[in-house]
């Protein structure tokens, strides 16, 4: 089977070091097996994203040596496909309107997880038609989740499980303002592009079971997942978008693509010596077994 991977950046700013790392591994995984790379702009949030940023992202990827074979339509132009998926879920009787307000959802009574996110307790699942008609606001739409622990094996993180009912709850698929949510859009888009593997940051690990569940409901195949470690500063702090000097706009003034790629590859355990190297060179000998699963420490001063 042909390997198909994807870059799925949000065009709301420059790529950050962490984005570059995930993109590099996504590319190496695909190119090391002669696969195809697809680019997709995730611009559901049209307030924060722009065509200018999308163009800069394309240039940044090419500067890094991370080529792609085709670009699929951006999410802002995919509403009809999301409508279609919504209809499938609706016909299967799996979605219902939720009229809860923000404050209800985040109230102290709502069950919360350790990371601060809430689990929707199913408040609106069994409202009668009469109760629904009593609300004078537009609802969000949720898909019901079963009482099921979803497990899968991640290429980097190993075995991972999520209890759909107690750690996730019925998921919003379309917001009250009509905008589809990330989980649904990604599932539909990956399916449409024939994506066979998804490589992205660790912060999205718990999204994988959610997306796999939606794939199952929509009759889409499950891709392989690889959630790559987050990059940490030597003091243990997560390097983030706030470290402005580590976005590509700044980094490109100070380092070559080979220096940047070599530094990341060394931190990840892909190469044994810290030296400049091109992505194309790395692809020749890349295997996932070499990639460390723990958080990676990177001293940003290396780029000064
Ligand atoms: Zn509700």
Ligand species: zinc ion
Order of helices and strands: EHEHEHEHHEEEHEHEHEEHHHE
Give the uncertain stretches in residue-range form: none
* Major sheet description: 3 strands, parallel
Radius of gyration: 20 Å
Strand content: 15-25%
Number of helical elements: 11
Report on this model:
The radius of gyration is 20 Å and the shape is elongated. It has a 3-stranded parallel β-sheet, with helices on one face. It has a 3-stranded antiparallel β-sheet with strand order 4-5-8. The protein has a two-stranded antiparallel sheet with strand order 6-7. It has 304 residues and is an alpha/beta fold. It has 11 helices and 12 strands. Bound molecules: zinc ion.
Quick gist of this model?
This protein has 304 residues and is of the alpha/beta class. It has helices at 17-31, 51-64, 79-91, 102-105, 129-133, 164-167, 182-192, 207-218, 248-254, 257-268, 279-283; strands at 4-7, 36-39, 70-71, 95-98, 140-143, 149-154, 158-163, 171-174, 197-201, 224-228, 231-232, 296-297.
Spell out the key features of this protein:
alpha/beta; three-stranded antiparallel sheet; binds zinc ion; single chain; three-stranded parallel sheet; 304 residues
Topology, element by element:
Blueprint: E1 4-7, H1 17-31, E2 36-39, H2 51-64, E3 70-71, H3 79-91, E4 95-98, H4 102-105, H5 129-133, E5 140-143, E6 149-154, E7 158-163, H6 164-167, E8 171-174, H7 182-192, E9 197-201, H8 207-218, E10 224-228, E11 231-232, H9 248-254, H10 257-268, H11 279-283, E12 296-297
Parallel strand pairs: 1-2, 2-3, 9-10, 11-12
Antiparallel strand pairs: 4-5, 5-8, 6-7
Helix pairs in contact: 7-8
Bound molecules: zinc ion.
